[in-house]
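Known limitations

Structure tokens in this collection are predictions and should be treated as such. Users comparing against experimental data should check residue numbering before alignment. To illustrate the layout, the record for Ferredoxin is reproduced below. The input appears on top and the generated tokens appear beneath it.
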Amino acid sequence: MSLKITHECINCDVCEPVCPNKAIFQGIEIYEIKPELCTECVGHFDTPQCVDVCPVDCIPLDPDHVESKEQLDLKYRQLVGKPI
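Generated tokens:
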């Protein structure tokens, strides 16, 4: 499952630089996450880095983009060019 940023976001700018897949970007009102790039940091870290640094806990799992750990790992491998 990818993550999403909710409207509780305060635009503090701490999540975007820690995303290893560059999935986080400044949207019109708040930061947003591109689900096609979000792997919940699978392949990079043990925990999602954006969630770890968010001071207002506004980055939950996105129920509209459900993915298993295996699917996230496959997405990670495709993003970084590792053999599948």
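For this record: The radius of gyration is 12 Å. The beta strands are 24-26, 31-33. Please report discrepancies through the issue tracker.
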